[in-house]
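#struct-pred

JT: dropping the chains for the assembly here, can someone run the whole complex?
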Amino acid sequence: MLFFSMAWRNVWRNRRRSLLTVSAIALGLAFNIFMRGIGDGFHEQMVDNSVRAEIGHIQVHRSGYHDDPGLNRTLPDPEKVAQAIRSLPGVRGYSFRVLGNGLASTAENSSGVQILGVNPAEEQTVTTIQRAIIQGRYLANGMQRPILLGDRLAAHLNVSLDDKVVLMVQAADGSMGAQLFRVAGIFRSGYPEMDEGVAFTLRSDAQTLFGLGDRVSEVALLMDSSRQIPGVLETLKKDLTGESVEILPWWQVEPFLQQFIQIDDAFFYIIVLIFFVVISIGILNTLMMSIFERVREFGVMMALGTKPRQIIRLVVAEAFALGLVGIVAGTLIGSALTQYFARQGINLSSFSAGAAAVGITSSRVYSELTIANLFYSNLVVLAVVLLVALYPAVHAAGLRPVEAIRHV
Amino acid sequence: MCEPNMALVEVQHVSKTYHDHVDVHALNDVTLSLGKGSFAAVTGPSGSGKTTLLNVLGGLDRPDAGRIQIAGVDLTATPADQLADFRLHHIGFVFQAFNLLPVLSVVENLEFIPALQGIKTEKRRQRARELLNVVGLAQISGKRPNDLSGGQQQRVAVLRAIMTEPELVLADEPTANLDSVNAALLLDMMEQLNHDKGVTFVFSTHDPQVMQRAHRLIRLKDGALIADELQGPGANAISI
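RK: done, full complex below.
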């Protein structure tokens, strides 16, 4: 206890220098927490937008569909899958879909499209397509072959509401099929590739168009929280054992998104590493100065019987005390900053085009404060402080008492 | 109590040379013996080897040749990592100046060595307060060294040195930075501890007052022992 008391008092012998070091640690940590919070919020929004735009948290297909999608790779037993999904906790919604490719044509132009046949009520529980309608209305059962087009696609085809669009496809049996649809609504998701290449229609119409009968291509699930994904994956795999299905989380459905997040994280870690190297030099400087000022004192302590390992413990305890104060201050500042921007958001309207390309469709990005962020940020700072303390500690422990006592 | 006729310190043919730009023979074939309860002063001109002798006696430095035994332990054969432990349990040190730990109060400075020895807080604090009471310094127990006079600091340093009742206390020029009044007070206290508790003191000094009150005077010149004299009331109790 006397040693810890000594360490604490030693830290505050040069108050100004220690406060500067504590400030460096605190600001470094606050920066780390805040940047991580922005990153977490940014990634969460990217994932949430992508998930809510089309893919859902989890998709279930016939085995092999993801790698080689084909019209005939339909879900083997949709009713059994539906039963399994209904028994899961935390499922906010699910939508059975028909997916296929075709050519959308008008009198003036044509364009390749991905056709999504959905049940309007089911689809609403998974995606936000209904809210993305900017003209016309959302799909409803009973409509006569309605179709929803992205605004870019509509512009390309030069169609507006109630105009006719012909969808030409190759049906499941290999024959060519074509049907006339009428534009019920135009949407703007914010994703360029979706707005210029996806058409929504009723699932029954898509099944007729592709000659699928009552078969479906996939089911997309939305959970209350993305944290439930691992648990749900496990349960579903267990419940559907023996079925020829593949159950994929969003990061397997859309690996680009996951890779983007990983690359973004890597850049973040590089920046943080550079930042902490700079801070480490500051801490090292403080500790070394503190050691050089106390050479005689260390000499006296060693002459009295203090062992080298006890000297190391004292210096490391001093660094720990410095680090602890910095960590408390840094955590408070970083948390406050992150929480503030979690409420207010950061305006990204100037970068909306670039942001949309990576899945940020909102003009604001909201930071997110997580326990993991606080835990790992604190852990890294503490580890850096203790690691940096080792060199001066070993240096002090290596002093020869007979020389150190004479040091002026 | 002390057993004055039993040899506590045995120094046999000890030499020490510092190799700088020129070789300096700090100790040159020194042989001496000190009994328990000694109150001895090592004296001589600057550079005569007083501090070096105290350093090798305290295990802070190693001689190039010869053998040193303290309380039956051969310091010259003790590994470096065990010397710290030996000092902790057997030797007390008083340095010339500035040797209290500035961030600790007087009572905490006294507790420092017992704390290193692992003695519990209550026990070591009680012992520290007892000692402070004995020498009339109880009123400064909560003060930091910077708030004390030089004389008070040295007296506290002596108390720290004897806190765990070591066999030997080595004091390097303990009165060098004190005025004559404070030097006398310090000597009174050391004499009292020597007399009442049998603490063995060996100090290096230039101070005539200290030399006068020592029971034994060991004179060095150019690293060699040139005289070893008994004086005062303890003269007939010390073995040479």
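JT: nice. The two ends of chain B are 20 Å apart (CA to CA). Residues 180-197 of chain B form the longest helix (18 residues).
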